Amino acid sequence: MARNKLLVPQAKAAMDQFKMESAKEVGVMLKQGYNGDLTAQQAGSIGGQMVKKMISAYQSGQVK
Asked: Does residue 33 sit in helix, strand or coil?
């Protein structure tokens, strides 16, 4: 059972692009598709960067 399903399936491409941009910003190179060879630290830094960017966008009024 997938626990991290997107509520809007059409947003998958945008989320993938967002993830790639965030990974590049923290210096982690992702491949298209499966990236199971990442360390927990690398995966966490990507997720943390994504959260920072989402919070910043919300606080600046870009997201309602």
From this structure: coil
